[in-house]
Amino acid sequence: xxxxxxxxxxxxxxxxxxxxxxxxxxxxxxxxxxxxxxxxxxxxxxxxxxxxxxxxxxxxxxxxxxxxxxxxxxxxxxxxxxxxxxxxxxxxxxxxxxxxxxx
Length: 103
Hints:
The protein is mostly helical and about 100 residues long. The protein has one domain. The protein is about 75% helix and about 0% strand. Helix 1 (about 1-30) runs antiparallel to helix 3 (about 75-95) and helix 2 (about 40-65) crosses helix 3 (about 75-95).
């Protein structure tokens, strides 16, 4: 049961990384006026990615101000997700199944 839960959380965190990357790429495409916001498909993707990412990015944006106009909160969130996904989550599963030491 723990392995199934681990795989589910691992997959969801991986999908979240993909959504964050799509969100960033779309914001760049909008900023450089390569893609129009009036395009229905692009607008729908933007709303979807914003609805998922903004609740997580908003607290980070309060803590991390933009540096030279660049929003680093996305990078910090990606690092946190990757740390949890690749280090904390396997350690926690190992602790729960009794296969390792506390530290």
